Amino acid sequence: MELTPFASMSGAIVLGSICSCLLFTSCSSDEDPVKSYSNYRITVNAASPVSFTAFGETRTITVSASKEICWDGKPSGETEPAKVTASVKGEHFMSESSQTDAGLLLKVTARENETEEMQKGKIVLTVQDDTATETRTVELNQDAATIEYGSYKIAFAEEKVSLPYMGGKGNVSFTCQREKMINGKSEGFESCSLDGISYKATRKNDATYSIKCSAVFIRSCSGSEWPVVTDRIRFR
């Protein structure tokens, strides 16, 4: 069979097209490296621990994250933003977060601390991709409350005590209360002991005495409630 010039040319075109496709496929496969990520980094604009006053306050913290691009497993030096999430631990702390172009805007609020202990918490920041998870922790510290005691009240159990005409000894009972101040605010009066408090009895007339108390002394006590303590002063 004899091929005509047209047939020969058509066959050459088809063969050339097939070779071109094979060549293009081969080159395209070689020129498309596999993209992956590594070297995740979380950046926070606040030093750890973040401190709060005992009165309670809100602190704003900016968080951003990045990841390095790898081609065929080799780091390229190029980075892309990464999405970061935050969760706050600690019963005295709460947070609100919002995503921005720069990353994560985090508002952390500490409630007023009315205890004599420092309150602690933490922020857990997490970047999670399909192949990796990166975390960072920021500590939270809140100052202990300032607890002071203001005025003292001394109440006598009896309004009048009688002594024999010829003289003798007697006792009078009284109780003491003090005003408790937490962070400068009055929390009312509580019963307290007179132990360690400077006071003295002064005779006025007949068998009438007054008690003078010094409120300079500050004394703490463990427990949520104070027992009612009765002291006695003896006179003659």
Keywords:
single chain; 236 residues; mainly beta; five-stranded antiparallel beta sheet; 11% helix; 53% strand; disordered C terminus
Distance between the termini: 151 Å
Q: Count of DSSP helices?
A: 1
- Which structural class should the secondary elements be placed in? mainly beta
| Gross morphology | rod-shaped
Helix share bin: 10-25%
What is Rg?
40 Å
Order of helices and strands: HEEEEEEEEEEEEEEE
Spans where pLDDT lies below 50 across 5 or more residues:
21-28, 211-236
For the sheet with most strands, the description reads:
5 strands, antiparallel
Number of strands: 15
Whole-number mean pLDDT: 76
Beta-strand share of residues:
over 45%
Structure in words:
The chain has 236 residues and is mainly β. It is 11% helix and 53% strand. The chain has 1 helix and 15 strands. Strands 1, 3, 4, 6 and 7 form a 5-stranded antiparallel beta sheet that branches. Strands 2-9-8-5 form a 4-stranded mixed beta sheet, with no helix packed on it. Strands 10, 11, 12 and 15 form a 4-stranded antiparallel beta sheet that branches. The longest helix is centred in the N-terminal third of the chain and has 26 residues, at 5-30. It starts with a helix and ends with a strand. Mean pLDDT is 76; it is low at 21-28 and 211-236.
